[in-house]
Amino acid sequence: MKQRQARRLFAALAALGAAVAIAAAAAAASPRVEARSGDLVAVGVVREDKMIIHLSRVIDNAPVRDAAMTVVLRGAAHSATAETDGSYTLQTPDLVLPGAAAVEFQVSRGAEHESLKGTLEIAAAAGQADDKSNARQLWWWVLNFAVCFGFLWLFSRRRKSAQS
Fold first, then answer.
1. What pTM was estimated for this model as a whole?
2. What is the residue-wise DSSP string for 3-30?
């Protein structure tokens, strides 16, 4: 009987650990922006003050390697550097500022010019107000789980003592 309770407790703690791991992974997800035009798709992933941009054609999803790209972020134009793997990179301190930012990818390929627009949502840095509410919500769920587990445990003990 005690082994069964220990197994249940272990299963509950494992589920709680999985929930915490999922919450931490969601918090650690990198900000991302996607912008489309009739012919092109640009996807930018931000890590710290650097954005890695993948530019591809809509028709066949083939990477576009021979383009000149300018990124307009928070009203300032920045030229993106072409990398050997076909991606483009942009490094600017504007990428660490929290909040929503309009992003415009201006792509030039020969005589063709296209503008792709999207919105980048950057979460507040660690230690700011948003993290407090996320941590508070996580602890609220942990407390609720513990209370429910406690009631179930007390109910099962009462039921067993009534059967004896």
1. 0.60
2. HHHHHHHHHHHHHHHHHHHHHHHHHHPP
